[in-house]
Each structure stands twice: as structure tokens, then as C-alpha cells.
Amino acid sequence: MSNDPRPDLPTETDLDELCNRLASVAVARGLSVSTAESLTAGNIAAHLGKAPDAGSWFSGGIVAYNREVKRSVLHVPKGPVVSEESARAMADSTATLLGTTLTLAVTGEAGPQTQEDVTPGTVWFGIVDHGSVHAEKQVFSGEPEDILAATIEHGIKLLVRYASTDAASISRGVPSCQRTSTAEDRRL
After folding, report:
1. What DSSP line would sit under 69-107, residue for residue?
2. Confidence (pTM)
């Protein structure tokens, strides 16, 4: 039996190595990390929990797959749940609930059928970094498993990037961005 949450997902990066990097930076900088996951159903938290010293920097995660759970627990506003507003609310609520300095939230559609009027592969990431809320949209291509794998990989890379970067330098950038991602440009 494998220790990987979804060992069959086709990632291009060694997720354990990314999580090890996050662990080192989080411990060195005294960060506390949490996640709020919908599309990824706890897979990001499962990877983080396997990293070294996870108990000292990873506070935990909330899996909110159902839209009513997103609304009642994570204060997602009425309207589409695959949206910038939802990703921001999920991240902010989780950071508050778990008292963490760095939080990642993920909400999206892997397809092939969608529940909302968005293209399959559309994923919104919310990040809270020391109280500043950021959001990023990615559109991944491929089968649902490819989209899930790309989402997990990109989410962990975002955590590494924010943990490794001075919060002020990120805040000077555009607070929200939209970008389409292909397999070739999913490198950290």
C-alpha cells in the first residue's frame, strides 16, 4: 500500500521534495500553514502532513466539497463557488479558524461535466499570507486526473513561493491574477 494520497496522479514535480522545501522554510521562518480544499478533496493537506516536522508548522486543513459547507463553515458568499470571491473567502476563513500565517484555498472544476458555468480545468487559488489575501486563477488542460494533479502541484508550489518570499514584496505585485497554464509551464 502506498503512502501517497493519490499515487496515480501524473505530476511533473516530486511533491515530497516540494513539501520538504516548504517544511524547511516554514520552520525557519516560524510559519504556521493551513489549507481549505474543495476540488483536491484533502490531497494537498495529505501531502503536507507527510513532510518533516509537519506537526510543528502544518496546523491542518478543511475539506469543503459541498457548497453548503463552503457557505456555512468558510463563509463563501452566495453565487458561484468556483470564483475569486470564493477562493478568497475560503482562505481567509480558514486562516482565521486555524490561526495560521499562511493559508492556501483551492476551488475549481475538473470536468468533464461542470456544475457551474466555467470551463473544465478552471481553478481559483486563494492565499492568505500574514493577513493579506491574494487570489490566482489557473486554467489547466487535460483529463480530470491531469487537472487534479496540476492543481495539487500548483497549490504546493504556491505555498513554497509565498513561504519563501517576503510578504511585502508579493503585496506590491498585482493582488489577483489570471493565467492559463499548460504542462510546459507548471515548473516552480
Report:
1. HHHHHH-PPSS-SSSHHHHHHHHHHHHHHHT-SEEEEEE
2. 0.84
